[in-house]
Design a protein that fits this description.
Layout: E1 9-11, H1 13-34, H2 38-58, E2 65-67, H3 68-85
Helix pairs in contact: 1-2, 1-3
Length: 91
């Protein structure tokens, strides 16, 4: 008899959201390097974040169940990207 819920598998919703935050910060940093418009950088972050979350939801990627270690790797990857961009937040 197999259990109905296996605690070793999680949905990818939260790990992908944390990764999306890191990627959105990176995209807004690239826009800041290209142009000096502060409003464009401020617009880039929520726009890229919203588009990534929308893509993950439409493709049902956020509902996919994976092993907890893979979810942890995705979370750590997102935090690593954030730490590279804004190291003062982690020091």
């Amino acid at each position: 008899m197999t259990p109905k819920y296996n605690w070793m598998y999680i949905e990818l919703g939260v790990p992908l959201f944390i990764l999306s935050i890191g990627l959105s910060l990176r995209a807004s940093q690239w826009v800041n390097m290209i142009t000096s418009n502060d409003w464009l950088q401020q617009l880039t972050f929520p726009l890229v974040l919203g588009l990534l979350v929308l893509v993950f939801e439409l493709t049902k990627l956020s509902k996919m169940r994976v092993h907890a270690l893979l979810g942890l790797v995705i979370i750590l990857n997102g935090l690593w990207i954030e730490a590279l961009i804004e190291p003062g937040d982690y020091l």
